[in-house]
Amino acid sequence: MASGEERRRHDNLVPLAALISREMRTEKMEKPIVKYGHAAQSRKGEDYFLIKMDCQRLPGNLSSTFSVFAIFDGHNGNAAAIYTRENLLNHVLGAIPRDLGREEWLQALPQALVAGFVKTDKEFQSRGMELFTLILQWTVTVASVGDSRCILDAQGGAVFSLTVDHRLQENVEERKRVTASGGVVGRLSTVGGVEIGPLRCWPGGLCLSRSIGDMDVGEFIVPVPFVKQLSNAGGRLIIASDGIWDALSSEMAAKSCHGLPAELAARQVVKEALRTRGLKDDTTCIVVDIIPPNNLIPLSTLPKKQNKLRALLFRKKSHDSASKVSKKLSAIGIVEELFEEGSAMLAERLGNDNSASQSTSGLFTCVVCQIDLAPSEGISVHAGSIFSTSSKPWQGPFLCADCRNKKDAMEGKRSSGLRACNAIIFSVPRGVAILSLSGQIGEFKSSIEFSWHHKDAGEKEQTFFKVGC
């Protein structure tokens, strides 16, 4: 039988889980210092950005403050970039249920980002590529469509991309998804049959598979973002449009600004990109430093014990087995991944939580556009088709008829109203002529867009073109 002293000693022992929880609560009380810098050079005037340091998860509660950094890279105009800058954040926050605690709020954020991106795309159908980064204490959440990029420089010599490029030329999975949904992927062809330029999606000729607002090129160009969420993500974030990444690799960008404060670092990255490639596109860069409260302790020398404790608490929740970056991040113990998902299927991204589809008025709401629905109006996001009955028609979240139609078109379950065409490019003296033709099925309308580019104004213009649909 154990002595009384041994029993008392045993009674005073604290379970390991309780110790971990206690240490984690202590950690969360120490918010990081967030410093940022921004720089840009404009050529087309289509890059816009958003920096908000004073957002509040709970209005009026200063302890719930979080920061947002975003780049909106428009193409064929700036209207979509401007609209998205003004509306995307509100759409995302509007999709998060009220009165959630910090952990629950962070868990709801990835789904809200999907709903916010899709709602913004639905409300404004023009063109744009977006990258959206949200920082709440030590947790970083990144959502992106297009080819803007966010990288993490962990200050230990390792640089990691936190986004996925949606260029058809480089993303095999996206090429398969687009063709499976009814799109045609190919290059421009000359008269002699020689293919030139990057892979593009037809109709429209866009070289990206995801963006906000590109409805004129087919709804298989979707606004559903890749989302990654990390904890303990101290270090330097470099967020930039493709004008930077077409000139610099991730490693080059990080190396070019080592040792500089955030404001100077952003300027240096832009300067290095211009030195390497010249000003061929808009170049926008935001640098964000996430620094421990005691800035005398370098991030690279934080005690390893903290990372091991986090590894016990947080397990990887990624649904994308192809992510090699995530495995490397976890292996070296720099950050812990809380969430990663890149699927373009809304049924996979919007979850199964019925409570998120219930409004304060007691009616159901559309999980995307947040409008109230009568119980008979909501269509389950899991339903196979708007014309067929779901095996679980009561299972939310729910969509309004408009959003359901959009979902079906994005997944190739109905016509997007556009026909694929083969555009052929012809070389002519001192210039290039491109013809694109698109027709809207059912409305018997077609639009022809012809653009002529010549280098020498004195050269006689000649026009030869042919198009097949």
Automatic annotation (TrEMBL):
Protein name listed in UniProt: protein-serine/threonine phosphatase
GO molecular function ontology, one term from the record: protein serine/threonine phosphatase activity
The enzyme's E.C. designation: 3.1.3.16
Keywords: Hydrolase, Magnesium, Manganese, Metal-binding, Protein phosphatase
Residue span, PPM-type phosphatase domain: 25-290
UniProt entry tagged with the keyword Manganese: yes
Protein family: Belongs to the PP2C family.
Cofactor(s) the protein needs: Mn(2+); Mg(2+)
Domain of life (superkingdom): Eukaryota
InterPro entries assigned: PP2C, PPM-type-like_dom_sf, PPM-type_phosphatase-like_dom
Keyword set includes Magnesium: yes
Catalytic function, reaction form: O-phospho-L-seryl-[protein] + H2O = L-seryl-[protein] + phosphate; O-phospho-L-threonyl-[protein] + H2O = L-threonyl-[protein] + phosphate
SMART domains: PP2Cc
